[in-house]
Amino acid sequence: MTETPSKKTPEPMRGFIDRLQDRWQHADTLVCVGLDPEPAKFPARFAHDPDAIFNFCRDIIDATAPYVCAFKPQIAHFAAHGAEEQLERLIAHIHAVAPEVPVILDAKRGDVGSTAEMYAREAFERYRADALTLSPFMGFDSLEPYMRHEGRGLIVLCRTSNPGGSDLQAQRLTSEGDAAGELLYERIARLANGPWNRTGQMGLVVGATFPRELARVRELAPTLPLLIPGVGAQGGDVEAVVRNAKTADGTGLIVSSSRAILYASNGDDYAEAAANAARTLRDEINRHR
Fold it and tell me: Can you give the pTM of this predicted structure?
């Protein structure tokens, strides 16, 4: 008598945060490579390549994957060149060759209702990103549609690395009878660490160029992942970032570098130079952990 093989219960989808934590622990890296392709900066070999954006970024991914906890493609750098299809293929490539490395789509979406639903479908169904950067300016209902996609990460702008971020993010909120309320970025951090984080998949964007604010965000959000742009070309100090923002176990950070890694060389050794730059950043971060 032939036995009918028992059906295995499918394993539940592992969420963005779990995958990120695995990468921190098992690969011993807090580095994120930002994929911001600028064809004018590519090596000469790509000058007449119609798939230059895909091919260049693929080579960077293949070379740097051992040293990263995440990849972060910036959607505008693809869309401006009509390269959305190349972005789709690129994320598929990451999932194929480095399935353990989560992909953060950097799009900074911020809308409500059906528009937010379509942005969520774009990020998570079309591009198959594992996480997405979001603007919280319109409040919780601009974030909620993304939470319907199980296991996907929502990384909310909090204290950004650009100087103009202070125009709003560093302004003090007041209420009746309270002349010294919290700062706007503090309110965002507190909400993200509490009532907004309904799926347990939320993180915050905090710039490396504001180390004191980094420390304050970590105080308000002790365990949330912090995506930290601003090291490398923008001049953020690695030691200050790690000292002020690491979690108790020495992780909690997604330290993003784009130009300093992507364009470490414009010669034929571009991929090797990118790998060396990513490894050097990993080692520098780890020295301070």
Answer: 0.92
